[in-house]
Write a structure and sequence with these properties.
Blueprint: H1 22-26, H2 29-38, H3 45-66, H4 69-94, H5 99-120, H6 130-145, H7 151-173, H8 186-209
Helix pairs in contact: 2-3, 2-8, 3-4, 3-8, 4-5, 5-6, 6-7, 7-8
């Protein structure tokens, strides 16, 4: 694989250079700013999630400036880490599962996500956003399943899933709307995701502060 291969997958990029995607690049500061705002307000694993949130912004910022294959890895890897860590924490603290079962639940995420991508990947417009749809669906499923056990957590997760669904919509529409909206819509994906991921940290932290950490 050529790690220096150029990547041009977004409407805003119409040429080469670090600032060929100014909005897509600058809006990644949203992740860093949300992480910095949350840092003094949370503790424990929530702070770890803040670190990963900041890394998401930095990684995506590299991808939308350098726009090369190696930067694509820097873009998606922190996102994957955030999702997997949150699934573990949800299994452990929301459901009260032992460590081994919580880890097993993380492992189950991979075939689940692969199945969703296999089903939705060929669907027009969704395409490359199918993996993120899998995450939104999973959050929604957790919200439904937890509605009686932990109604406040369930409500928080449902809101997170809804915001992510809107965010995914903007990501998916970036290319189809390119001819009529040249700056694209991908930058809205960044801004909404920064808010959504920050909110997911808040949902977890509030649960732990309330003494609801069932996995302790």
């Amino acid at each position: 694989m050529d790690w220096r291969q150029a990547v041009d997958g977004y409407c805003e990029r119409v040429g080469s250079g670090l600032w060929a995607e100014p909005l897509n690049a600058v809006t990644n500061l949203g992740f860093v700013l949300v992480a910095l705002w949350l840092w003094p307000r949370v503790t424990g694993w929530a702070r770890g999630l803040c670190v990963v949130l900041a890394l998401i912004g930095l990684g995506s910022g590299q991808f939308h400036t350098f726009a090369e294959a190696w930067a694509g890895v820097a873009d998606v890897l922190p996102i994957a880490v955030f999702v997997l860590v949150y699934v573990y924490l949800a299994n452990r603290e929301f459901w009260g599962l032992p460590v081994w079962a919580s880890v097993l639940g993380v492992g189950v995420f991979f075939p689940y996500a692969a199945l969703v991508v296999w089903v939705l990947g060929p669907v027009p417009v969704i395409g490359g956003s199918a993996a993120y749809v899998a995450v939104a669906l999973l959050i929604g499923l957790y919200a439904v399943a937890l509605r009686r056990r932990l109604p406040e957590v369930a409500g928080g997760l449902a809101l997170g899933a809804a915001v992510l669904a809107v965010s995914i919509t903007f990501r998916a529409l970036d290319a189809p709307l390119c001819d009529v909206w040249p700056i694209g819509t991908h930058f809205l994906w960044h801004l909404l995701n920064a808010v959504m991921l920050g909110w997911m940290i808040v949902v977890y932290h509030r649960h732990m502060v309330a003494g609801g950490g069932a996995g302790r």
